[in-house]
Write a structure and sequence with these properties.
9 helices, 2 domains, 391 residues, Aspartate Aminotransferase, domain 2, 7-stranded mixed β-sheet, alpha/beta, Aspartate Aminotransferase, domain 1, 15% strand
């Protein structure tokens, strides 16, 4: 039920952005006190911290011991591009996409790499494509969680254990909030600024033994820039996966990532992180179920994200507007809440259908999310009044 009465309680933290995401509860700049500033990342102190970041990542995400974990340039985008340019081309590839970022990888493979044998398995915003159409004798590229649609794969059950192709998974808005089935995944990528609320610019690249075998047995037909090169002389550059990064990382960002990882470990690791995200998503879902003007963009509850929750307008007057009108309506709500200082950056992604996108990952406190909900109703009522006044 909407109201014109401005709520009194404000979220303690108004940061509900889907990336960069809210810092962990209790974070302050003092968390960075021990950063190895002014030191070489190749010095013992720098390399030790990079190794710690890799090992804590392995521990918390429960990555198998025989998988390599590397810190790479250019956030999740850099990690995905390294995988695409280094691994694809040995066989045909199925590109699976249902939102903006997955579609971006399709574009890169078709228009930049210009591979001959590419199949596109796609769906519009709000639904998963038919996963049964995927041929796992081919390489497969997909996102685990569609950040801009709020649609995720429910599990890795659709991937066979016995497969000939590689599975390349962009998991940036899923890692640390959803349980990744690593034995079904040959490449996993994510970035620090998502679920754990770290700082941007650094990516993580996780490789299975099968992916390493491909790297060492297959050489792409195209030249590879230095920051994409994972092999030398036909062998994996092992140092990348031991903290010897390809280019210079920010030791300030490394310290912040270490702080986030230690916080995650202190609250109970992956199970606790998933539970926090699930609880947040449940609070928002309960609000949407009772709402007369909001609905989930993700149509199937089994595939709804517990991190990047995307919402569409169900109010008849608003849904009757054209796309530009709905976008303007959403912008009005977002702007109103921003000016009030109760919610920042909750507009739908620019390529997605008009609506709202509210981050429910583990660094968001449930109490802040609960405090936000009456403000959503208030902002909607105010915007609806403006719409009627302009009619």
């Amino acid at each position: 039920m909407t109201t014109h009465t401005k709520p009194g309680l404000r979220p303690a933290n108004p940061n509900f952005s889907s990336g960069p995401c809210a810092k962990r509860p209790g974070w302050s700049v003092e968390a960075l006190t021990n950063a190895a500033l002014g030191r070489s990342h190749r010095a013992k102190v720098g390399k030790t911290k990079l190794e710690q970041a890799i090992e804590l990542t392995r521990e918390i995400l429960q990555v198998p011991a025989d998988y390599r974990i590397g810190i790479v340039p250019a956030s999740d985008t850099g990690a995905v591009e390294m995988a695409l340019w280094s691994l694809l081309g040995e066989r045909g590839v199925d590109m699976v996409a249902w939102e903006s970022f997955g579609s971006g990888w399709v574009t890169d493979v078709v228009k930049q790499l210009k591979l001959d044998d590419v199949r596109r398995i796609e769906a519009g915003y709000g639904a998963l494509p038919d996963l049964a159409k995927i041929d796992f004798d081919r390489d497969v590229v997909f996102t685990w969680n569609g950040t801009t649609s709020g649609v995720r794969v429910p599990s890795g059950d659709f991937i066979p254990a016995a497969r000939r192709g590689l599975t390349i998974c962009d998991a940036t808005s899923a890692a640390f909030a959803q349980r990744l089935d690593f034995r079904k995944l040959d490449v996993v990528t994510f970035s620090w600024q998502k679920v754990l609320g770290g700082e941007g610019a650094h990516g993580m690249l996780i490789l299975s033994p099968r992916a390493v075998e491909r790297l060492e047995s297959y050489k792409p037909a195209w030249p590879l820039p230095k920051i994409f090169r994972l092999t030398s002389g036909g062998k994996l550059i092992e140092g990348i996966f031991k903290g010897e990064t390809i280019n210079t990382p920010s030791m300030l960002c490394v310290e912040d990532y270490l702080d986030a990882l230690r916080w995650a470990k202190s609250i109970g690791g992956l199970d606790a992180l998933i539970a926090r995200a699930d609880a947040n998503a449940a609070v928002l879902d309960g609000f949407v179920r009772k709402s007369s003007w909001l609905g989930h963009l993700a149509t199937d509850p089994a595939t709804r994200s517990n991190t990047s929750v995307c919402l569409s307008f169900t109010d008849p007057d608003v849904s009757a507007l054209d796309a530009d009108g709905q976008a303007a309506f959403a912008k009005g709500i977002v702007s109103t809440l921003d000016k009030e200082g109760v919610a920042y950056d909750i507009g739908a992604y620019r390529d997605a259908p008009p609506g709202l996108r509210i981050w429910c990952g583990a660094t968001v406190e449930t109490t802040s999310l609960e405090a936000l909900l009456p403000w959503l109703d208030w902002a909607f009522a105010a915007q609806k009044a403006s719409l009627k006044a302009a009619a």
